[in-house]
Write a structure and sequence with these properties.
This is DUF1822 domain-containing protein. This protein has 461 residues and is of the alpha+beta class. 33% of the residues lie in helices and 24% in strands. It has helices spanning 22-32, 38-61, 77-80, 114-117, 146-156, 159-163, 182-190, 205-211, 213-219, 230-233, 236-243, 246-265, 272-291, 307-311, 330-342; strands spanning 18-19, 67-68, 86-91, 94-101, 108-112, 125-132, 137-145, 169-173, 295-296, 315-316, 352-360, 363-373, 382-390, 401-407, 410-416, 425-433, 439-444, 449-451, 455-456.
């Protein structure tokens, strides 16, 4: 009878290994659960573990250096959903990008083009962190400065042809990275940030976005599925324009979350063509919200029009308290106000109002806007905007007229004329924080529409 001898060889972990605890794991799970795509959710989970390892590594070696990750991509789920690395971390004055690697025995490191070629995400240092997820530990393995990365890209020469993948990842040889991470501590403590020159952020991002509006109206709805990859829908120039506008990134993220929730709940979505039209409209409104200068209705509280309001010939109406005589259009507005109050619409006594006349497909229209500071103890920085769309002369509204209001999240209200009753105006009221803006569109069923500049609220003089 023979005896089968079995032996198990355990690879000892290096002494510089950083161990994770249950709190680290829980934080990584919490961060990753916000990602709608399951493969990217796993990558985000590993990236969160990478951040924990780096924080502990830094604290053990030089506890006066701390990691500020408030503005990092991993703290913004919409960005973490699109960027496979963790960038925009701050250690002192230095921006850091953490690259998660599964093993130091890999010959190449996958480095996203986003953190190399888009200035908003380019760091001073790229730091390699090996994550051993099953063993719940990891090691900081090496680093590379941005300036050294550029030198290596130039030396490699053929990197654009041979090492840039269709998914926008550079394959960088592991040998390009400095393998003694302790030297990074020296740089973080003693080096001046000006010693490493980062690319300048272009000043024409808004103009570029405006020029791509028609492209994005068609393309961005195609990113609704969480399984769709960014590079499958957009070219690099388009992707750059999106990634450098956080509102567009948030729009894509919210769309994918909604799609995932519908799939999970097995809900039947509305007609596909109708849904596409709504998404196209939402994208168009959002881009207009981002690229058009806003009317600051906060200035109305000081009885002032800003430059945009003056250019568009907005007219301020007297405050409710000082109005002693009725005259058109003040008389008209007061009549509308009384009607709204009988319907339970509360308008602050300190609200200020104005109106703007415009023409839609030959139809003269008048938009009243009423605004006030609606801050409360629970919402200390909120404002309200009441919008009333009518005609400058007593008349009924066209039956196919619609009033649409959008913010950065999408369409908030789309109200049409009720064909069963005669209406002389449409109205809606929205509220938001002081950093929120609203954009208003009047449209007809034949597709003709007029979009007015966004409304913003800033009471500073």
């Amino acid at each position: 009878m023979s005896t089968l001898l079995m032996s198990t060889h355990f690879e000892p972990l290096p002494i510089e290994t950083i161990y994770l605890d249950s709190e680290d794991i829980s934080r990584a799970v919490e961060v990753s659960n916000k990602i709608p795509n399951y493969s990217r959710q796993w990558q985000t989970y590993l990236n969160a573990l990478t951040l924990c390892i780096f924080e502990k590594w830094l604290e053990e070696r030089y506890n006066t250096l701390t990691v500020d990750w408030e503005e990092s991509t991993i703290n913004k789920p919409a960005l973490a959903n699109l960027i496979p690395a963790t960038t925009n971390l701050k250690v002192g004055e230095f921006k850091i990008c953490l690259i998660t690697i599964p093993s130091i025995f890999e010959e190449q490191v996958s480095l996203s083009k986003i953190v190399v070629d888009i200035p908003e995400f380019v760091p001073y240092f790229y730091v390699l962190v090996e994550v051993l997820e099953e063993q719940e530990c990891g090691c900081v393995r090496g680093f590379l400065s941005y300036s050294k990365l550029l030198e290596n890209l130039e030396n490699i020469g053929t990197i654009e042809k041979n090492s840039l993948q269709t998914d926008w990842n550079y394959q960088i040889p592991l040998t390009c990275f400095e393998n003694n991470p302790n030297n990074l501590l020296l740089y973080l403590r003693a080096l001046e940030p000006t010693a490493i020159s980062l690319p300048a952020i272009p000043s024409d991002r808004r103009e570029i976005l405006a020029a791509m509006e028609s492209e994005f109206v068609k393309l961005l709805p195609n990113l609704r599925s969480p399984e769709t990859e960014f590079w499958q829908v957009l070219n690099w120039e388009q992707a750059t324009a999106v990634l450098t506008n956080i509102e567009l990134v948030d729009w894509i993220y919210n769309l994918q979350i909604q799609t995932r929730n519908h799939q999970t709940q097995n809900n039947q979505t509305q007609n596909h063509q109708t849904h596409n039209l709504e998404l196209n409209t939402s994208v168009r409104d959002l881009i207009q919200l981002l690229v058009q200068p806003a009317i600051n209705v906060g200035r109305w509280l000081w009885d002032e029009l800003d430059e945009v309001g003056e250019q568009l010939s907005w007219t301020l109406l007297p405050s409710f308290a000082s109005a002693t005589a009725f005259r058109s259009p003040l008389e008209e507005f007061e009549a509308i106000k009384l009607q709204l109050e009988t319907q339970g619409i509360e308008i602050s006594s300190v609200a200020r109002s104005g109106y703007h006349d415009f023409v839609l497909a030959g139809i003269p229209l008048r938009l009243y806007a009423v605004t006030w500071n609606s801050s409360t103890e629970n919402e200390p920085s909120s404002w309200s905007l009441l919008l009333i769309l009518g005609t400058p002369v007593p008349d009924t509204l066209p039956e196919n007229l619609k009033l649409r209001v959008s913010d950065q999240t999408g369409i908030l209200v789309e109200q049409g004329v009720n064909p069963e009753q005669v209406e002389s105006y449409l109205y809606t009221c929205v509220a938001g924080n002081w950093n929120e803006k609203f954009i208003v569109t009047a449209s007809l069923s034949n597709g003709v529409e007029v979009t007015l500049p966004p409304f913003a609220f800033d009471i500073r003089r």
